[in-house]
Structures are given as C-alpha cells and as structure tokens.
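Input record (Table S2, row 272):
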Amino acid sequence: MTSSTGLRPAEGLLAQLTMLRAETDGAVVHLRLNRPDKRNALNGTLVRELQTAFANLPAAARVAVISGEGAHFCAGLDLSEVTEQSVAEGIFHSRQWHAAFDAIQFGPVPVIAVLHGAVVGGGLELAATAHLRVAEAGTFYGLPEGQRGIFVGGSGSARIPRLIGVARMTDMMLTGRVYDAAEGQAAGLSHYRVDDGAGLAKGLELARKVAANAPLSNYAITQALPRIAEMAPAEGLFVESLMSAIAQGDEAAKQRVRDFLGKRAGKVGKAS
Ligand code: 1HE
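Output record (1HE complex):
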C-alpha cells in the first residue's frame, strides 16, 4: 500500500531486513532504522543490515534516504555489545562498521539523512556518511565516547572533522558538549533545518530533486568530488578534467544542455 509519502514497502532482499524498514517509489529508497525501543542503537545486526541494504539497492534506485523510527535518530553504538569484547574483537567490530559505512558513502546513489532527537556517538558517525543532512529543530548532537571511556570506531575520526573541524570534535569528545540543532547547523553538521516532524517530507523533497539529475552527474558529485578534495591540487585537477569530460560525454548531459539551449529547461533559481 502506498503511504502519504508516496512510498510503498520495498520488495525482495530489502523486505527481509529485520531492523531496517525499507520503502520505495522506485527512484527513492527510504531506509528507516527500526529499533525504537533501544533508540535505534547500532548493534551488529543493524550495522550488517545497513551494509546489505546499500550493497543491494534496486537497480532503479537513484537516491536513498535514511531516518530513524521513534523519538531519536540514533543513540550510537549498542553499548551492551562492547562490555565483554577483547581488543582483537574490538578492532574487527570497528572494521565491520567501516565496511558498512563505506557502503553508504561510496555506494551507487546519493544519500540523505533525516535527523531528529539524539544523533550521538555512532549515530553521528552514521549521519556523517550521508551526502546531505536534514535536521529537525529538536535534533541534538553529541560524542559521549570520552565519558564512556571509549573512542569513535565508526569512521567518525575521518568523517566528522571534515564537516566541523578537528577543534570542535575535540571539544565534543573531551567535554561531552552537546550541540543543539541550531549550533549543529552553524557548525556544518546539517545542510537544512526544519520544524519538528517536517524532516522526512523535506528529505523526500530533496531526494526527488536529486533523483531528477543525470545519474552520472550525481555519481561524480558524490564520488569524485570528495576524493578530489583530498588530493593535491595538481592531481585533483587532472581527475577533475577526466571526470568532467566523462560526465559531459554522457548522452544525458548532452540532452540536458540541448534542452537549455532550446529554452526547454529551467533557469538557475527558477522552476523549470
Ligand atoms: C541503549 C543505548 C545504547 C539507549 N546502547 N542501549 N551512545 C551513548 O552513550 C548514548 C546513550 N543513550 C542515551 O544517552 C539516551 O538513551 C538517549 C539520549 C539516546 C535517549 O534517551 P531516552 O530517555 O529517550 O531513552 P533511554 O531511557 O535512555 O533508553 C531507552 C532504552 O534504550 C534503554 O533500555 P531499556 O532496556 O532500559 O529500555 C537504554 O538502555 C537503551 N539504550 N541508548 C544500548 N547506545 C563504533 S564506536 C561508536 C561509539 C559510540 O557510539 S559511543 C556512544 C554510545
């Protein structure tokens, strides 16, 4: 049955996931963390299901949206899983998160995270894998690893400083400082801030816009751009030239340029 969001339950492998609820309209796939009784804390099953979902998106998928069921986006690492872990198990556990989170950031489609309530610890690490973040007014961000006697292990040390800088992340981890939605937005944690309850609608609105772009252009933006930004300028600019020629050579790009020149496409800042 199609819901008010225009999405219907996904079929196939995505329908078999137990801690993620998947729905789709074809181009947009919405994955909702579905463990609200534990505030969507990320246990091994949920992390593996995220990896499975992103490795098995339907061929028609053009963009994915991640959100959380219940009062919070995600309470981070399921702390009940770490108390008896050996050092070696801790390393393998962290590497499993890296594999799953890489599958999100470096998967085939742009990803939009819709945030509300707690976005803490591994929940913030998960949010940082997305290419766009929408935060509801009641969102709050924390990195309580310092207080828990642990360290980020879900790629937060690589991804979060690229959003807010090492200095802010150091403060959040050392002092347990919590950012509210407005502070998070100012620091660079979210791209869009909306009223409570309006996050998914905004996320889906953005998703449908992004899905209307040429797929190769979206791929270049989400996969080439962040890599080029990590390169020395000379190497980066060479890759930029290759990527831009590849994207431009695609028939979808040629058609879009012809549409603009033929006055059949919208102008910047105006609806088409
Ligand atoms: C959990 C977890 C969890 C809740 N692991 N079980 N993350 C944290 O340090 C965050 C810890 N959680 C919290 O601070 C709060 O739960 C929240 C602010 C997120 C939400 O508060 P609230 O009042 O809505 O819920 P609650 O009553 O605290 O929790 C409801 C249940 O979820 C409760 O279980 P119950 O059996 O007593 O009902 C909680 O124990 C459970 N729960 N959060 C396990 N995180 C790869 S490295 C990543 C490192 C980290 O992520 S460190 C940060 C961990």
